[in-house]
Write a structure and sequence with these properties.
With 372 residues, the chain is α+β, with helices and mostly antiparallel strands. It folds into three domains: 140 residues, 3-Layer(aba) Sandwich (Rossmann fold), CATH 3.40.50.20; 148 residues, ATP-grasp fold, B domain (D-amino Acid Aminotransferase, Chain A, domain 1), CATH 3.30.470; 64 residues, 2-Layer Sandwich (Dna Ligase, domain 1). A seven-stranded mixed sheet has the order 6-5-4-3-2-1-7, with helices on both faces. Strands 12, 13, 14, 15, 16 and 17 form a six-stranded antiparallel sheet that branches. Helix content is 31%, strand content 26%. A hairpin with a 2-residue loop joins strand 5 and strand 6. The structure holds adenosine-5'-diphosphate and magnesium ion.
């Protein structure tokens, strides 16, 4: 485990680097995505840990319908999903004019420009973690905290991410791609090629939405139907016998990696309920594996991060198979950020507080901009 963050990161965290004027950071939360609720919890944690000596937050709430508001109310109301009831919401939009790098406040028929230094999309899943919001912000000339358009879009697409990572010589679970036009008979044939049990998953989803572990052919069609309610393309994927491990990666060129974590399951898989209640599963940080294996996972995590052009930060998830082989699962470009989430947990084990992580992520986005 890297006990110390690397040098460039340490530099960003020095008090001498506190700018004389606070930088204004737009924190985007909510969003038109099935993962709206998860985002509220992450955004509440990020807002609560923002270093107020360095940064002034602008809380930008996005409704489930995709409408943007500047929110001036209590931060607790974000976690409770009561922020829209506050009477403290003013419609806001993004100025696409690059010389503004601003949000446009629409108040009483007037437009007010609110310049921002960076925007932190604390959004999960579609329309937030998939490159769409990143694209709008980049077009507007506003530095984006975390991954940019390309890496966000690639990591949201589990099939394309697998192909790129495989080109680096890192294996992924065997899979078959199906779309809405794939005939039922063909789906059954492809599933039989994978063998049972297998996972049916939407290509673009998160928080385990739409995912089923299927143990026999009779359960296949209902699993496929469920997954199609989340996406137009699906993966039928070999179930890896072993356990899932993760790497928290922070950095642009010079990468800091936290402790490797491990998900211990006692039944089924890491579904939505388990992820947010840990009723029958547990997360171990550090993972209960030897140092050599941990180092192998960390090296693989870095290679995956680079293969997918990630910037700022991301959580790289892999499986450690019973055979000892490491398989790529997926990259979460905006992982959960609550005090109980895996990403901050792995970095905490390497000595970084949530405030330091958020500071580093913001400074890395500003550094990226000054490079370009
Ligand atoms: N090929 C696989 N082998 C074993 N378990 C899997 C496999 N694919 C998914 N899972 C289980 O399902 C969970 C969710 O799948 P994942 O692909 O990570 O989707 P999400 O983006 O929703 O997190 C994983 O955390 C793991 O428990
Ligand atoms: Mg996952």
């Amino acid at each position: 485990m890297d006990k110390k963050p690397d040098r460039s990161l340490t530099d960003h965290l020095q008090p001498s680097h506190i700018p004389s004027a606070r930088k204004r950071i737009a924190l985007l939360f909510g969003g038109c995505t099935p993962e709206y609720e998860v985002s509220l919890q992450s955004a509440h944690a990020v807002a609560g840990s923002l270093d107020r000596e360095r940064y002034e937050p602008l809380l930008v709430g996005i409704t489930r319908q995709g409408d943007w508001f500047l929110y001036n109310g209590a931060e607790e109301k974000i976690a409770d999903d009561a922020w829209q009831e506050e009477g403290n919401c003013v419609p806001i939009s993004l100025s696409l004019n690059r010389s503004d790098h601003a949000l446009l406040l629409l108040r009483d028929g007037h437009v007010e420009k609110l310049p921002v230094d960076a925007a932190f999309p604390v959004l999960h899943g579609r329309n937030g973690e998939d490159g769409t919001v990143q694209g709008a912000l980049e077009l507007a000339g506003i530095p984006v905290v975390g991954c940019g358009v390309l890496s966000s879009a690639l990591c949201m697409d589990k099939d394309r991410a697998h192909r790129l990572v495989q080109a680096e010589g890192i294996p992924h679970p065997r899979s078959r791609l199906i779309c809405r036009h794939t005939a039922k008979e063909q789906i059954r044939r492809l599933a039989a090629e994978i063998d049972w049990p297998l996972f049916v998953k939407p290509v673009k989803s998160g928080s385990s939405f739409g995912i089923t572990k299927v143990s026999d052919p009779q359960a296949l069609s209902s699993a496929v139907e469920l997954a199609f309610s989340y996406d137009d393309t699906l993966l039928l994927e070999e179930a890896i016998s072993g356990f899932e491990v993760g790497c928290a990666v922070l950095g642009n060129d010079c990468l800091t990696i936290g402790a490797v974590d491990e998900i211990e399951l006692s039944e089924g898989f890491f579904d939505f309920t388990e992820k947010y209640t840990l009723k029958t599963s547990a997360i171990h940080v550090p993972a209960r594996i030897d140092d050599q294996t941990s180092e192998r996972i960390r090296r693989t995590g870095k290679r995956i991060y680079r293969a997918l052009s990630c910037q700022g930060f991301a959580r790289v998830d892999m499986f450690l198979a019973d055979s000892g082989e490491i398989y790529f699962n997926e990259v979460n470009t905006i992982p959960g950020f609550t005090a109980h989430s895996r990403f901050p947990g792995m970095l905490a084990a390497a000595g970084l507080s949530l405030t330091q992580i958020v500071t580093a992520a913001i400074e890395l986005s500003l550094e990226k901009r000054s490079d370009s």
